[in-house]
Amino acid sequence: MTTNAQGSGKRAVKAVIPAAGLATRFLPATKAVPKELLPVVDRPVLQYIVEEAASAGITDVLLVTGRGKTSMVDHFDRRPDVEQRLEEKGDTERLAAVRRTSELADIYTCRQGEPLGLGHAVGTAASHVGDNPFAVLLGDEFVDEGSPLLPDMLDLQARTGGIVLAFIEVKPEETSRYGIASVRESDLGEGVVEVTGLVEKPAPSEAPSNLAVVGRYVLPGKIFDAIADTKPGSGGEIQLTDAMAALLEAGTPVHGIVYRGIRYDTGQPLGYLQTVVQLAAQRPDLGEEFRAWLTDFVGGQKG
Ligand code: G1P
Fold first, then answer.
1. In the CATH hierarchy, which fold is given to the domain comprising 11-267?
2. Residue 3 — pLDDT band, cuts 50, 70, 90?
3. What digits encode the pLDDT tens for the residues 264-273?
4. Could you tell me if the CB of 178 is within 6 A of ligand 1?
5. Which of 192, 227, 267, 302 could covalently link to 123 via disulfide, CB atoms 3.0 to 4.6 Å apart?
């Protein structure tokens, strides 16, 4: 195994969560409630994402928010009134759950004034992040906590100093929903590939592979200069994929880890419902009863 001299050897400790989008696919539910706060059983989607970051060693999380979305920040604040009530009732379990949200990481916030694209959203984090490597976690997807992805990505970035992505294999007809990479083999570890090209949302006929970029990135600080130089691309938006492709072109090492675990995509109603059902079915407190009901329900539908 080779060690790339460019890496600092230190893992990134900051994460940026772009969450300023309008969530038109969930209207009217998202008129007044950010889609990132829609519940999956009894925790909002965003909490799963911050928990994923925290368990990978991230200690500093910057939420990129927009108008009408500040309640996302409140979710990670203390609630002394609620805590006192639970303490009086002796409900230690809920008290711990409520306190936990404010103890996961240091939460910061900045604004994306206009929805100009994912690259633009990440660019708003420049002064908070500075020159350090950092993780980006998209606000509507997360992975199974039993098979985490971020720790390996952070380790790999500390070695290469470059960009580290995560991929899933998608069906040919799905390439136009994702950033797609061309890759070659890498000697940096099991499941690691070296990226040779990146294109945002190509038509199936234009796609260089079926490896789709998922919403986890570990990036070097120099991405901010690349974003500043990026012109609007796919959908007329400033694309993170285009900024990463420019760094790749200029010689920055780009690697990807092919993820084989379960990815929950809550960005559209069907994926959201599937996420709720899967996680409810796994819950130790209500999973058994829920699964039994679900089996009866589905059986009844068929009959
Ligand atoms: C974004 C990225 C895309 C990536 C996808 C993963 O697209 O631009 O490259 O594959 O997230 O979910 P979006 O889903 O925001 O349109």
1. Spore Coat Polysaccharide Biosynthesis Protein SpsA; Chain A (3.90.550)
2. very low
3. 999 999 999 9
4. yes
5. 227
